[in-house]
Amino acid sequence: MAENRTRVLISKLGLDGHDRGAKLVAHALKQEGMDVIYLGIRHTIGQVVDMAIREKAEYVGLSFLAGDHMTWVPKVIREFREQQADHIKLIIGGIIAKEQIPELKSMGVEQVFLPGTPLKEIANYIKAHATAAEARENGNDH
Amino acid sequence: MKAMNKLKSASERWQDTILKDQLARAPELRDGFTTESGIPVKRLYTPLDVEEIDYLSDIGFPGEFPYTRGVYPTMYRGRLWTMRMYAGFGTAEDTNRRFRYLLQQGMPGLSMAFDLPTQLGYDSDDPLAQGSVGRVGVAVDTLADMEIIFRGIPLDQVSTSMTINAPATVLLAMYIALGEKQGVKPEQLTGTTQNDILKEFIARGTYIFPPGPSMKLAMDVVEYCFERLPKWNTMSITGYHIREAGADAVQELAFTLANAIAYIEAARSRGLDVDDFAARLSYSLGCHRDLFEEVAKFRASRRIFARIMKDRFQAKDPGSYLFRTFSGSCGSTLVAQQPLNNTVRITMHALMGILGGHQAIHTASWDEGHALPAEDASKLSLRTQQILAHESGLCNTIDPLAGSYYVESLTDEIEKRVTAYLRKIDQHGGMLKAIESGYIAGEIQQSSLKSQQAIESGERVIVGVNKYAEEEEDHGEQYLHIDQGIDEQQSRKLAEIRARRDSAAVRRTLRALEGAIDRNDNLMPAMIEAVRCYATIGEICAVMRNRWGEFSDASIP
To answer: Which of residues 81 through 140 in chain A touch B, CB cutoff 8 A?
Structure first.
């Protein structure tokens, strides 16, 4: 059964240490039956991407509360591409201006969750969009 | 006794008749009521609920043990609280402009926010600093930045509170060196370094070094200031961030006091007498949502602390008993949706601080769910405090909620619960051990989950979020936008200083700092030497990183 679970890595990049939201999301996704790798705070892009590949995560969720998301996101996307891991989907949350969402999505962010989003909504989003694990095992995924 | 028996039977009669009839006709809105932190709240409080409280020994008079009613005898009748606005963003020039503006608006105290690279001891041109320069506070690389930030602001005429922890020694050294340049002596400097590293490990995450060396640095500030900066508040032991990380009111106060106990024990083990430094410690707590619970928490904080100082540490100087408090709006109570509603929440925060009898109060700004406060929003929140101070009658008498059966009973209940927590922490072998074992983080996480569940189930109403939500109007143009080019701008400035300064002197002073670390000296004198030569915060912290290593949260289970 465990192999069928969606694997999600949750972390924070850069120097911001406010991890209350990231921890809550990690806990909620676990409750919803997903395999959550919670990496904690102050990681580099390399650490997050390497871990996502090693742990075969389907989703990476990053929390940004310090206004540095526009700097980090393009670099994360580039790193995924360079590591040939662009099948890993990126979702982000935190204090993000609404008008930045289209730009973030055009960079390759799959979804953006703003403050006040119920945890259930994040879980439901992932459930609805995750590739069924069986399909992956049948070789439908690269 | 007789009166109490009479009251008891009258109360029973009321319950069996009037109340019973009403409940039969119309049940109450909920089965049970609790405070925000889950303390059960009764329908009605009467003298029966405060029967066991002894007025003289538990409540007393302001300015006298156990200080439940306030730390000073005349409180706001003698002097209003300091209205502090936390500010700092972008470059030194931006912050200087904002500081001068706030001082012109009649704000007597500055409260300084630093960007994350500064808080973590990285220079603005460090690859790790990318994207964070000037973002949540001002970037300070060298003394040159401090010179610009305080241009036109004489240090003997302001008090400056610096939210700085892991590198507090470096920033204090810069402030002292800046004073020298302005002709202000160290003994004239007034202000505060937050310098509370323990809460970084459990809540805020801006630690650099492992707990041992971190405590050493914190104590260096306490020890150095004891003789040389007698007016400096060496530590602001802070519950605010613990609350913001998800703790409830009881945990916030208990963990803050447990941190205070750990610092006092560390200072004593350096040979300082408790009465030499305790009066220079100050405290900071959050103003959350539940008005009465917060006021009871503030009243209980003074009483518990005074008792700890008297019984546990045998302090003799009354100054050591004072739980002088700076309180601030909990940012987590502010929401992004319908943001102007936050002005009402912020007014409540100020009200809690005032009814709580605090010495300094910070009010957040309505736009903080989206961005750092814009100038207008920041002004409105300062005006909020001024309106309460001058137009509301709140300051006419001391501790006006005292004697409320509910507030006194809740104050007592919070004291009981906090004391029980402190006992548990002692059983863990003290706060350092309780932090390292993950006990504290686990307790906070449980409360954080509980409150999130209460919000998502709708049990805890947040107007505009889980009730009365509506399509959003856009306030985008009113928010503060920080120039994206600030990284390069600040890095360029830093490069110029590196080129201009006396590099040999920098190398020499950094080597001297290394020597001081190896001898386990107090590092303040060596830091002051280094910052005078424009050694950068990154260079100074690199010396310490090399010697002590860095802490990672992976080591907390």
So the answer is: 95, 97-99, 114-116, 118-120
Sheet holding B325-329, edge to edge: B232-233, B190-193, B159-162, B109-112, B82-87, B360-362, B325-329, B281-287, B235-238
The Cα–Cα gap between B379 and B365 comes to: 8
Give B332's contacts in chain A (Cβ within 8 Å): 20
Please, what are the domains in chain A? Answer: 2-128 (3.40.50.280)
With contacts defined as CB-CB under 8 Å, which chain A residues touch B483? none
CA torsion through residues B375, B380, B381, B385, sign = positive
Of A102, A119, A109, the closest CA to residue A59 belongs to A109
Secondary structure string (H, E, C) spanning B242-271: HHHCCCCHHHHHHHHHHHHHHHHHHHHHCC
DSSP notation for B36-65: TT--EE-S---GGGGTT--IIIII--TTST
| Six-digit token string for A19 | 């991890």
For residues B20 and B30, give the distance between their C-alpha atoms in angstroms, rounded to a whole number: 16
pLDDT in tens, B165-206: 999 999 999 999 999 999 999 999 999 999 999 999 999 889
Count other C-beta atoms under 10 Å from residue B239's C-beta.
Answer: 29
The residue type found at B487 is D
* Lookup result for tokens 């007025």: B55
Residue for token pair 């409750």: A31
* Domain-wise residue ranges, chain B: 83-389
Residue B554 has pLDDT above 90, yes or no: no
What tokens does B453 get?
């569940």
CATH topology for B83-389 is TIM Barrel (3.20.20)
Question: Hey, are the CB atoms on A97 and B465 less than 8 Å from each other?
Answer: no
Interface probe, candidates A10, A12, A15, chain B, greatest B C-beta count within 10 A: A15
| pTM of the entire predicted model | 0.90
Q: How far apart are CA A10 and CA A57, in angstroms?
A: 10
Q: How confident is the model over B245-303, as pLDDT tens digits?
A: 999 999 999 999 999 999 999 999 999 999 999 999 999 999 999 999 999 999 999 99
- B 335-354 residues with CB < 8 A to A: 335-337
Nearest CB partner across the interface for A24, out of B135, B449, B484: B449
- Kindly list the distances between the CA atom of residue B159 and the CA atoms of B102, B165, B187, B359, B476, in Å, as whole numbers in the listed order: 13, 18, 13, 13, 34
Contact B131 A40 (CB under 8 A): no
Chain A residues touching residue B122 (CB < 8 angstroms): 15
Cβ neighbours of B76 (radius 10 Å): 18
How far does the CA of residue B481 sit from the closest CA of chain A (Å)?
A: 10
Instruction: Determine the distance in angstroms separating the CA of B138 from the nearest CA of chain A, rounded to an integer.
Output: 13
- CA dist B173 and B169 (Å) reads 6
- Cβ contacts of residue B489 below 8 Å, gap of 6+? B91, B483
Tens of pLDDT, residue by residue over B364-379, are: 999 987 777 888 998 8
Of A44, A70, A97, the CB nearest to B370: A97
